[in-house]
Write a sequence for this structure.
């Protein structure tokens, strides 16, 4: 999984434990949910946490949705669901890793 480096410009708030935003484990880092975006610390600034390309999550029989038991995370124009240490997003007839 390749994560794009897209700096979130003009972001003065410092995300960390207790900052008031939901912390979401994501691979080797922590994302913070802020104003419909997912931010991650990177070299003294914050980036939008976006994955490069289309990464289908195969072998996923569970249907995500309201009441599915997984944490829903607003992400741009859709909702990701935390599942097995990563985020899943509905895409056509399958889920993608986000």
């Amino acid at each position: 999984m390749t994560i794009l480096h897209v700096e979130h410009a003009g972001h003065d708030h410092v995300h960390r434990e207790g900052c008031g935003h939901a912390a979401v484990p994501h691979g080797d880092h922590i994302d913070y949910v802020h104003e419909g975006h997912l931010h991650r610390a990177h070299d003294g600034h914050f980036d939008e946490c976006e994955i490069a390309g289309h990464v289908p999550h195969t072998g996923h029989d569970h249907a995500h949705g309201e009441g599915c038991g997984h944490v829903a995370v607003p992400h741009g124009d859709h909702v990701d669901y935390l599942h097995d240490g990563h985020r899943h997003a509905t895409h056509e007839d399958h889920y993608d890793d986000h």
About this structure: The CA atoms of residues 17 and 23 lie 8 Å apart. The longest strand covers residues 45-51.
